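Two quick folds needed for the group meeting slides. Do the first one here.
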Amino acid sequence: MLSFLKRYSGFFLLLAGIVGLVVLNVTQPDRETAISVQTTAASAVPLGNTAGSATFSTTAPLTAVVSDYVFVDLHGAVLRPGVYRVRSGSRIGEVISLAGGTVAGADLSQINQAKIVGDEMVIVVPWVLTVPDSEAEEPAAPSTICVDVKGAVLHPGMVFLPEGSRIDDAVKAAGGMTAEADSSSLNLAARLTDGQIVLVPARAVGTAAPEAGWVPGYGYVAVRGEVVRPGLYYVKVSTTLREILQLAGGLTLEGSAGNLNLDEAIVPGSTITVLTETEVFALLHPTEGGGTTPTEPSSGNQKTLININTARVDELDTLYGIGPVLAQNIIDYRAENGYFECIEDIMRVSGIKSSIYENIKDDITV
């Protein structure tokens, strides 16, 4: 028997080898399938935690080294930084997508997202570089210009506007046009320059007002003296003196209304002059100021002189040779140039010559 085994030992070894190969070929597909299932399930799951730790997940244990996958360490401005296992040939952009994409403030300008990743590659998605507050440039302040608005506007004077403003903006800043304004010669769309004068003309005296601009019950009142915005105002006839002074910005620090009846309604064509406290005191107490007491008329037959500095249109119209047109010229001159210093100054008014002055000089005063 022993000699038999020795004689056929080689045959038995060959047979055992063939059986072993058959068994190995039968069981190998199942093993490969198991490995494939494990690696496929793990390919879309980061092996690190969301804080970027290198600790591997225990939910997808590796039972074999698979050459079709690589490991990538992803850092920076992504939603879920960490270690990722991806298929060979994957791109950087695909890894970033697996990590949930970038967060606000990420800077991908220097990253080639189409680049193929390699094993043990480290990818850092940087944040947008911010300039420290100390180095940041201060924003340029908007440039402003100053223009002087004159003429038929509610609040003539200086106005400050942004650079690039138009004439229409300046007119609106000055309160808008009065009902007597004539804007036919103005280009309201023209661009303004610093230091420019914007003149809104009024219609000539005696010309008919267009129906669109005519407002019944309104009239001009000139405000002079110690007010913030002296000028010519176009207001309702029922407007009180108090309201007129408010339109003019109120009194200056030196102004006083002690000699004025603030509840009195204004008279169109009149001039309101606000005096200083010293002037009001001297007016109300002439003897205490060293002046002389005005002489009172001794009889009812003494002529009452018309003060050309305060008279209304209807009062000036009573003068010999002065009709409604010349009376309005006197009011307009007064509004533009202030009070007459002497009665002879009335000859400076357009239309009043020396012959008319000789006829009225004994009937007027200042």
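Then this one, please, same format:
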Amino acid sequence: MIPFEVEINGDIVQIELNENSDIAKVNGEEVRFSIVENTQQRLLLRVGTKVYKCDNITVADDRVSFSFNGDHTDVKIKNEEQLLLEKLGFTTAKSDLQGIIMAPMPGKILDIPVSEGDLVETGQAILILEAMKMENELKANMAGIIHSIQVKTGESVEKNQILLEIKARG
């Protein structure tokens, strides 16, 4: 099980996912789900007899924004590594990782719409990663120049593997 902590409107929700199962734990309670439709900007999720629609999905650092059944939602997500570091009393030095784009989970590279030497802006889509039957659009965490690309389209990657590096302009 992969643990996550999600902050939604000030409320903290503990989620555990198993990428090989259709059961998640939400605040300790098992929930059976299925993904009905999965495209780059839309996810239809069935939980029991209800279908939930997530549209306009964007991911930037630890924030995910989307409309959920028509209502805009912005959530903050802490992954397994962030939770462990926090539990141990450490915090990540964001400046040390600035410009380094790492795989947030194991998956397969579907597309790399940038090349080395390209100028990018903060929030610009730089890589599409397929994981757990979902397409995840990874975005530039800073404005700059694509310094190096460590992966190729079609390649499988591990969680926290460095995918590419952005250097500040100048």
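Slide caption for protein two: Residues 2-81 form a domain with the Lipocalin fold (CATH 2.40.128).
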